[in-house]
Amino acid sequence: MSLPRQKQAKILEEKISATLYLLRIIITNTRLYSIEHEKVREMVSKAFGNLSEILNITRGLTLLTIDNDLIINNRAIRPEEAEHFRLFLTILKEKEISHITFKKGITPKELVQFLSDLSSPLTKTVYNGPGISCGKLGLKEGPRDSIASSTPPSIIARRAKNNDNYNEKDQSLISKLQSLSQEQLTLAQELYFSVKQKKKYNLGGVQDAMSSFVTLFSQNLNPLSMLTTLKSGDEYTFTHVINVCILTLAQAESLGFKDRHLYDIGITAALHDIGKIFIPDEILTKPAKLDQEEREVIETHSMKGAGYILNLNNVPKLAVLAALEHHIRFDGSGYPNIGRNWKTHIVSQMISIADTFDAMRSSRPYHAPAPEKKIIDVLLNEKGSTFNPLLVDNFLTILARNRHLSH
To answer: What residues form DSSP beta bridges with 101?
Structure first.
C-alpha cells in the first residue's frame, strides 16, 4: 500500500534536509582532515546512498541561493532550519556558487571530486559534470538593491497622465517601437532556441534592443498598440514574452521608474519565462488540460529558469527573482511553494498581471481569446489574492488611457 502523496513529500523533504546537513559535515571534516580520511569516506558513501534514494524519487535535487536565502527544490528553508545551513551558505558564497543540481546518474567519483573542490580554499573551480552542475554568479547588482521591494502606495496609486497631444510624432514613435518589438521577437526566438540546443548565447543583441526600446518608450504612448501578434502557433512563447515585456514596462514607467531601472525591468521581463525551454514540447503544446504529473513538470520551469539565468553574465539579480516568483501569488500561494512568508518583488507582481492579461487575450489550442471585460473581471476578482490590488488599479488605468488614445 503506497503512502499518501503528502506523506511521501514530507519523507522526501526530511531525507533531503538530512542529506544536505551530512554534506555540510563532510565539507567541515574534509577541511580539517582530507577527503581520503576513513571517517570522511564513510560519510561520503552514506551521502551518496541518500542522494541515490532521493534521485530515484525526484528528477533532480536543486539548491538555489539568492542573497541569504536558500531554496531547496522549490522550498525556502524555514527560519528554524537556517542555522543548519549557515556554514553551507558561507562556503557557497566563498566559491561564488549560486546554484547546484544533483542529477540522476551521479557517480561516487563525481561526488568525491565535487566535495573535495568545494572544501578546498585553494581550488577556485568546482567540479561540473554529467551528474552535478553548479553555477557561479555572473550577475550584476541591479534593481533588488536599487529598486525598493515595496513601493509606497501613494506612488503605485498615481494615475497615468491624460494625453491631449497624441499626434504624428507619437505615431512615429509607436511605429519605431512596433519595429523594435518585432526585432525583440526575433532575438527572443534566437535566445530560446540557443538554450534549447544547449548552445551559448550572447545577450548583447537583446541588451542593445532593450536600450533602444527603453529610450523610445514613453508614458504618453499607447502600450497595447505595440503588442505583437502570432504569425503561427509555434510563436506563442516568444510573442507572449515580448508582450509581457511591453506591458510590464508600461506599468513600471507609469509608476515612475526611469532609465536604467526600466532597462533592468525590461531585461527581467524578457527572461521571465526562459525556464519553459526546459519543459518537453508535448507538455507545452498539449491541446487539452494537463494532468497532475504534467502540471508538476511545467511548474518546475520557474526554478529551472532562475537556475539558468544565474549562469548568464551581466544580467540583473532581479531577473532571477522574477523567473522564480512570477507564478507566486500576492498572498504567497501559487508555485513554487516556497512559503507564505516569502514576499515577492514588486516587478514580479507587475509581470504576474502582464502575464495573465496577455495569456487570456491570446488564442491558444485549449482556449479562445477572452474579451477584455472578462480579463478585467478576473483581475478585479483576484485583487488581494493573486494580484497586488494597487498594481491592478494602476494597470486598469493604463487600459483606460489606451481606450482614450484609441478614439
So the answer is: 62, 133
Residue 318: all three cell numbers together? 532581479
Q: What is the pLDDT of residues 6-44, one digit of tens each?
A: 777 778 888 888 888 888 889 888 888 888 999 999 999
Residues of the chain with CATH 1.10.3210.10: 143-406
In 3D space, the residue among 338, 350, 349 whose CA is nearest the CA of residue 303 turns out to be: 338
φ, ψ of residue 247 in degrees (nearest 5): -70, -30
- Sequence-distant (6+) residues with CB within 8 A of 308 are 195, 274, 275, 278, 323
Q: Does domain 143-406 have CATH number 1.10.3210.10?
A: yes
Among 91, 86, 132, 89, smallest CA distance to 109 is for 132
Which DSSP string corresponds to 364-375? BTTBPPPPHHHH
Nearest to 59 by CA among 279, 379, 310: 279
What does the block give as the cell for 328?
Answer: 507566486
CA angle 260, 278, 59 (to 5 degrees): 125
